Amino acid sequence: AxxxxxxxxxxxxxxxxxxxxxxxxxxxxxxxxxxxxxxIKIGMVTDFGGVNDNSFNQSAWEGLKAFGDASxxxxxxxxxxxxxxxxxxxxxxxxxxxxxxxxxxxLLQDAMLEVANQNPDAKFAIIDGVVDAPNVASVTFKEHxxxxxxxxxxxxMTESNKIGFVGGIDIPVIQRFExxxxxxxxxxxxxxxxxxxxxxxxxxxxxxxxxxxxMYNQGADIIFHAAGATGDGVFNEAQEQKAAxxxxxxxxxxxxxxxxxxxxxxxxxxxxxxxxxxxxxSQSLVDGSFTPGIVNLGIAENGVGLPENNPNVPADVLxxxxxxxxxxxxxxxxxxxxPVE
Amino acid sequence: xxxxxIGSDLIHITLVYATALMFGALGGLWSERSxxxxxxxxxxxxxxxxxxxxxxxxxxxxxxxxxxxxVAGAIFALPHAVxxxxxxxxxxxxxxxxxFLAVGLGLYLTKLIFDGQGQSPNLxxxxxxxxxxxxxxxxxxxxxxxxxxxxxxxxxxxxxLALMLVTWYILxxxxxxxxxxxxxxxxxxxxxxxxxxxxxxxxxxxxxGAFAAMGGATLALTTTASFSHSTVAGQGYxxxxxxxxxxxxxxxxxAAAAFFGVVTAVKFLLPYIxxxxxxxxxxxxxxxxxxxxxxxxxxxxxxxxxxSGVPYExxxx
Amino acid sequence: xxxxxxxxxxxxxxLIAIVLGLALGAVIMLLxxxxxxxxxxxxxxxxxxxxxxxxxxxxxxxxLILTGLAVAFAFRTGLFNxxxxxxxxxxxxxxxxxxxxxxxxxxxxxxAAAVAAGALAGAFWGAxxxxxxxxxxxxxxxTSIMLNWxxxxxxNYMVKTFFLPAxxxxxxxxxxxSYLNIPFVTELFSNARLSFGxxxxxLCAVFFHYYLFRTKGGFExxxxxxxxxxxxxxxxxxxxxxxxxxxxxxxxxxxxxxVEVLGVFHYQSVLTVSPGYGFQGIAVAxxxxxxxxxxxxxxxxxxxxxxxxxxMKFGANVPPELVNIVIALIIFFLAASGIIKPVTRWFRARKxxxxxx
Amino acid sequence: MAQTxxxxxxxxxxxxRFPGIVANDDIxxxxxxxxxxxxxxxxxxxxxxxxNILFGLYQPDEGEIRINEKPVAITNPNVAGELGIGMVHQHxxxxxxxxxxxxxxxxxxxxxxxxxxxxxxxxxxxxxLSQKYGLAVDPDALIEDISVGQQQRVEIxxxxxxxxxxxxxxxxxxxxxxxxxxELLAIMKSLVASxxxxxxxxxxxxxxxxxxxxxxxxxRGKVVDSLPVAGSNPDExxxxxxxxxxxxxxxxxxxxxxxxxxxxxxxxxADDRGVKALDGLSFELRAxxxxxxxxxxxxxxxxxxxxxxxxxxxxxxxxxxxxxxxxGASPRSISEAGVxxxxxxxxxxxxxxxxxxxxxxxxxxxxxxxxxxSGLLQYGRIYEKARELIRQFDVRTPDERTKARALSGxxxxxxxxxxEVDANPDVLIAAQxxxxxxxxxxxxxxxxxVEQRDQGKAVLLISLELEEIMSLSDRIGVIYEGKxxxxxxxxxxxxxxxxxxxxxxxxxxxxxx
Lengths: 341, 317, 357, 513
Ligand SMILES: Nc1ncnc2c1ncn2[C@@H]1O[C@H](COP(=O)(O)OP(=O)(O)OP(=O)(O)O)[C@@H](O)[C@H]1O
Ligand SMILES: Nc1ncnc2c1ncn2[C@@H]1O[C@H](COP(=O)(O)OP(=O)(O)OP(=O)(O)O)[C@@H](O)[C@H]1O
Ligand SMILES: [Mg+2]
Ligand SMILES: [Mg+2]
Description:
The structure holds four protein chains of four kinds. By secondary structure, chain C is mainly α.
């Protein structure tokens, strides 16, 4: 039940070497069979969410862990207890000479800018933020594109024509989720009503639960959450409603959350492949091809999308999703980044 | 949405939300009525949430977890009793220590047990929920409005309401209660009347720990589904406020906790009454601002049990 | 017990409490399968290992001194200020406002005005608590708790409404003229964010002591704190005293908020949770025996432990929460000092035996 | 054995040490069954300590206790209760927001079905007991609503309810009115008549002479003497107790009235509900006199003092100080205008117990220029002044930096007197200035009050002790239900008449101006 075991996603770029290593009985494996040791060190700093929030931060950590275990580099993370910890935590890695330092999340943006400017020789990468410095790779996602696709699923599958969106903190990243989601629904089901609720936190499962409870009680049958651990509460509530005989669904976020919460309540998930981005950029460092600058990953780049398996989504709906996915990919549809009601 | 549905839902969510606070406030009541100030409700709830989540995870039953939490809460309260009763410590300071200890211990042990993770595994994950399930009282839950509002709730809500009555009965109708109240008002009088002041205070503080911890377990087992740093997150202090607000009376304290529940639940229902666009911060501020206004304008002076906060030293004047 | 013994106890008890707290913390680490020596070494290394870390440790200590003083001051006047958290936040907001808007002021003056604004805002927030208590009899604990939350959301609202650059989760930066940082010091400490705020905090501790024990205002507040009936009869303004005490207490916390904005971040973030300095301040004040100098030492200890904690995780993989346990134990032993009295007695006996030999 | 007299209580060689003091030093005490045995001694002599040991609140360091000739170990009050020992404490041990019955049954509760309190049964028992011993109280009344005298009856009932045969009374009359005292003494007699034994601690020699059989005198923790009361006299007892001769006669110069210093005109004070604590009260206080206010506790004395000192604002009428209205002025401005005040409750109003003596002595003039220099308090001068007052007023303390809390009641009172007298007020209000003090301390304080009067100051003396009022006052006003029902001169009245007036019977004419 520990979250770590679920990390292996069918992922195109993952080196195949990883699979056999995992299958050999671990205890007596001689060191020789492990991938070659490397003296490269990659660290990451999280905000206060921590590395097992069942979504964003966890995804990042799992990506780094998978990459580290596969490539034999050293890796570690530091969790920040308060805002003022970001800079010292980044600096801790800098001072000990780590080769690449990740900042996980939008909230680290300012801290990273400052530390990156003060340490031009160190290399940094940030997820979900843009840091304009010559030694930082900024990885952002087109969440609105992925959210559009799950919006299509929701719009086609809702029976009550009432759909909920639970957001964490009201920040641009999360607004992109909402914007795409609304747009996707509108594209296939203009009559559906969307109720939104920002809880103001990424770590308050109780609030997520209460928000979901009101939405379901007021007739929504599908809720999409983009709220980190707050979203756990949405799943908990859905499970309860399901047990009481109501036909309700949750659309997960960041990872394929059906793995954690089961297919009974998880309709599908909006995958945001933070883990893969972590691996790709980290790999570029090992290869010596690390390039600072902005990478913006959307459907075309395979950075966002639906999971491989969607047992709860009928084929015709998936076909529609594919159709829209192609349209977005080829630029026929441009999804807005801020919510339009 | 009809106003009735919203009203019914408001009560429903209030009860879900306020249950843990009610446990906490009743917990504080036991201790403070015996003259031991308890600002450690927060810590006791934290330990309860931790124990409830972890024991449930391993034992596979939320009720085992719930009971374990009560026991753990009582044990955790012991140092507070030792410090404030036996060693005549400043009770506020001892409470502060316990609050720090609870967060430290809870997260340290979580990380130790779960391989460095700062959060215990989600109890509702993997398809089978280990959470406490809501009950629907047969027939009653079918009544329009009232059914959903009152008779479709977590058993913990009914437990805490029952415990409120039990607390009231013990406190005001039994010899034990008479002694607890006497010790809280005038320990020396109780002592000279042959009441063992120390024993009464020890028992009261331990009971306090058990009650508050049940509140923490309620959070973990009915709402958050796991233990983490944000499970209790200040609700112990709100429970303390409810206790004072409720003027140290079991029914008052529970009612005050319910008041907090209502003002919090309103936050989630605003979108349905056309107030969805009020800024989130203003909405979030609402429960606290309303409480403050009510306090300052209507409630006013509340007097704590006379001897609360004063260590009792046998033989001093 | 004679006076001399009492004096040595004042000194020794905290020392023993700290040693015992650390020792028990080590035992807990051993039980958890960690290496306590490596952990403490890593902690100290993180706190003092480089000029940068040392500077950041001071940065961490600074607000703790101030919120510690806030709690201690109220405590001395018979009030429990659990609301330093909120006073801290409104202090940040006010200094942010002055720091951003009052750019017509020259360098030093601008910073001073911004700090003063923080102090005033904190004082106002504290005075609200005092007013509710004095005039309406509302218990200060409950008002402070409410005001903490109100401050959190109010400050967020204000920052978002008036100071937020598009697409950010923090305010615009304050003008450089309002910075509390001293360039050559920053350089000396390799860009650590310590600032003149540390000196302000120490000055506040001096003020705390002098005001409380050497001025007539302090005399009044202490009298009100100990026995408001006697104070009232002696002609002191009891209600005014309560408001004043809470205002001064709040001012300390407000300055802490100002120092964070002007000396550390230079902006104010939109916060999801309070930074926690107010609650840590309670612990600091308790460790320091609610005395000025003690509070400074308490903050130093607390700052080292909390800032060093990250190093412990890094160097020995020990969960940083362990320091909370250590802090709790220290406070606990101080509160219930009877538990450790046997230890002091044993020390004394041994010393006497040695002297006799 | 049979021929030795029947001692119910024997305390043999009891020693009890507190840090820095031997409170009881090899004390021997033997109490005969069916007698009233007095314990006499100065403040701090060790009387309460000895009785607390007998009651199981303290453990003696040395010595033995025998009850009914059997050695016993009284480890706590429960054991004492089982041995038939009950105690009526100096400071009442009553929970103020409990009913009479609840207080009486606390610790010895009656239950029905084994769980629930049986208040009715207990109340019936209380009623029966109060009838049997003539202790009228309402079993259902709240303690905070009944008079001090009634509270004391509750204390006595508490012991009887537990079946006590040996009753200890620690200064039971300090808070009672003359009538109540007489009633109490009668109750004690009737208790003894029904086979109980009583140990009585009191500072009032008259009471000892009136009801006691034997008296044991303690000085500084040691027994000085133990003797039958018959054949002794108050002077002898006082001298044994203090170790010197004590004068009960207050020496006063002849009265020389001058101008009116303080005047109350139709002062009314009503609370929120309109209940009048003061109801059109009027009097004049003249320079050079001690004006005594006699009355049963709770008839408006407390409220009168609060109005005069500025702690409350009257709802009607006028208060004039040297002709200027002061009603509603702040305590400070009244005090600065020349009113001093010795409060009735020294712990609540008189002292900040956690301040040291120096600070307490400066409590009202800490802000005066003599103690301030550029905004800073001059502690050097504060302590210098304190040392001077300590010498002048004979305060027994190690030094001026000792916390007030650590002093005995008498010495605490001296700090207040020193502070108030030193301020040299034109009007000195003294409320119960000698409550609970021993004869030596009382003598000292009385002399100070008379000194003030003789210097031409006006003194308002409010006391429940008729004897004190009679011996000190030049004129006496009797307060009843918030009104002065009569003003008389001590030479033209007696305690009996005053007592009647205090009870509201037929006010003497020529009263209230
Ligand atoms: N708990 C205590 N701790 C320390 N010293 C005490 C304690 N109780 C009493 N003493 C000291 O013991 C001595 C005797 O006190 P005790 O109360 O027996 O006097 P007392 O004769 O009853 O006086 P009073 O007439 O004022 O009631 C005093 O000097 C007092 O300071
Ligand atoms: N813990 C203590 N340490 C030292 N002395 C104490 C302690 N407790 C009580 N005393 C002393 O015991 C003595 C008797 O106390 P008690 O309360 O009987 O005072 P008192 O003189 O009778 O005054 P009053 O009757 O007005 O309270 C006083 O001298 C008091 O200061
Ligand atoms: Mg006594
Ligand atoms: Mg006395």
